[in-house]
Each structure stands twice: as C-alpha cells, then as structure tokens.
Amino acid sequence: MDQNLLNLVKASFSLWLIIACSVIAVAVAVERTFALWGFGEKARSLADAVGRALYRADLDDGRAQCERSGSMAAEVFLAALVALSAKGGTLAGRPTAEPNPERLAAAVERERQRVNLRLRRGLWILGTVGATAPFIGLFGTVVGIMNAFHDMAHTGQGGFAVVSAGISEALITTAAGIAVAVLAVVLFNVLNTHAQQLTLQLRLLTEEYLELVKELLPSLRAGAPARPAGGEG
Q1: Are the beta carbons of 137 and 178 closer than 8 angstroms?
Q2: Sign of the C-alpha dihedral, residues 34, 37, 39, 45?
Q3: Distances from the Cα of 39 to the Cαs of 43, 73, 75, 103, 186, in angstroms?
Q4: Measured in whole angstroms, how far is the alpha carbon of residue 21 from the centre of its chain?
Q5: Cβ-proximal residues to 205 (8 Å cutoff; 6+ apart), any chain
Q6: CB atoms within 10 A of CB 23
Q7: Tens digit of pLDDT for each residue in 140-151?
Q8: 208, 117 Cβ separation under 8 angstroms
Q9: From CA 192, how far away is CA 177, in angstroms rounded?
Q10: Which of 83, 109, 126, 194 has the most Cβ atoms closer than 10 angstroms to its Cβ?
C-alpha cells in the first residue's frame, strides 16, 4: 500500500501541486509568526523610550532609540522625529516651514499605513491556497476518474481491480486538497486576526504619540526639556 501511494504521488501532477501549496502555506505561516511575534510589546517599549526622550527634548536620543529597536513600528515614531528636526529656511531655493501638528500627523499616518501593509504581507498567499487547493483536488478527482474509465476501455474489462488505481488517485487527491485548504484557511484566520489586533494596537500607540508630540511641541521647538505630567522625573 505504501509503495502504491508513493507511485501515485510520483505520477499525479495534482498531488504535486497540493504538496507544493502545503509547503508554501506552512512557510508563509512560520515567517509571519516570527515577524509578528512580540510586535506589540516592542512597539509599546519603543513608544515609552521615545516619549521619555521627547520630555527631555532630546530628539537625537529618540532617533537613536528608533534605529536600535529593530521594530517595524520604529518608522512611525521616527517620522515625527525627522519632521521635528526640520528647521525653517530654504531648501533647493524654496522656503521651508517649521513642523506643525498637521504635517506631523500626516507624516506619522503615512508610516503607520506602511507598517499595516507590512503586518499583513504574505497573508494573501494563505487565502489563495485555501481557496484554490480544493479545486486542485477536484481536478485530480476528475483526472483519476478519467484514468479509471481509460483503464476499463483499454483492458475491455470491468470490476474494481481495473478501476482501483484511478479511483484511489481521485479520492486521495480530493482528501489532500481539502486537508491543505483547511490548514491554509485556519492559518489565515489566526494570523489575519492577530495582524488586525496589532494594527489596532499600533493605531492607539500612534494616537497617544501624536498627542504627546502636540503637547510638547512648544518646548521641542525651543529645545527645552518639559516637565512630565504627574510629577514624573
């Protein structure tokens, strides 16, 4: 039986496609799991570190915190720091203005949207595998049944012994396609839900960060440390 199954795998193009889909789905799921692992904690820790740097009006330290963090959220916080570092003057013969809350918010929002895309990167592959794997299995089913009838026509005989190979290919391919589709859909739902939660966490962190930047904007423009609210030192 094992040898027959091995021969079936070697001979069935549909099974090869299904196996390839399963490998791709697992690879994407593993990559996304490592990419999303600890994102929320790292983003929160970075937000706290950058916030302390802003209270000290130390933009260089804030930028250094972002560059060292290795978090995908670093670009979000860094966008405001870069805008805060800009000074009024001229650039390429054109006047430039000092940063204002609207420009800061727009810069941060652009980076947040980019991070959102990175959080969901590759998830479409899982959705595609989940949607197409059953049809690949169905294609294998049709091919298997066609082979069964071909064997009957070729031998001029009927019976289970003649059609068993084709029927086995049909059933195994169908089962494999359904199994891979279920696996891909489950992985997609789990990772997509997790990515949505991280997207919401990043949105809340971004809003808190922008509120802090707007509150400290006068002192940041003056380059003077601000006294943290609540008596923090």
Answers
A1: yes
A2: negative
A3: 6, 8, 13, 26, 21
A4: 18
A5: 43, 44, 47, 73, 76
A6: 11
A7: 887 777 766 666
A8: no
A9: 22
A10: 126
SS3 of residue 233 by DSSP: coil
CA–CA separation, 36 and 116 (whole Å)? 11
CA distance 144 to 12: 9
Mean pLDDT value across residues 67-72: 85
Q: How far apart are CA 229 and CA 71, in angstroms?
A: 27
Please report where in the chains the tokens 């941060």 appear, as a residue.
Answer: 108
Percent helix, percent strand, percent coil in the chain, to nearest 5: 80, 5, 15
Q: pLDDT-derived band of residue 10, with 50, 70 and 90 as boundaries? A: very low
In the chain, the amino acid numbered 117 is L
Distances (CA, A) of 219 to 22, 70, 137, 212: 56, 28, 65, 12
What token pair was written down for 102?
């609207």
Identity of residue 142: V
**Token pair recorded at residue 95:** 């006047």
pTM: 0.76
Residue 162 has pLDDT above 90, yes or no: no
Per-residue tokens: 97: 């203005």
Q: Which pair of tokens denotes residue 1?
A: 């039986």
As beta bridge partners, residue 94 has 91
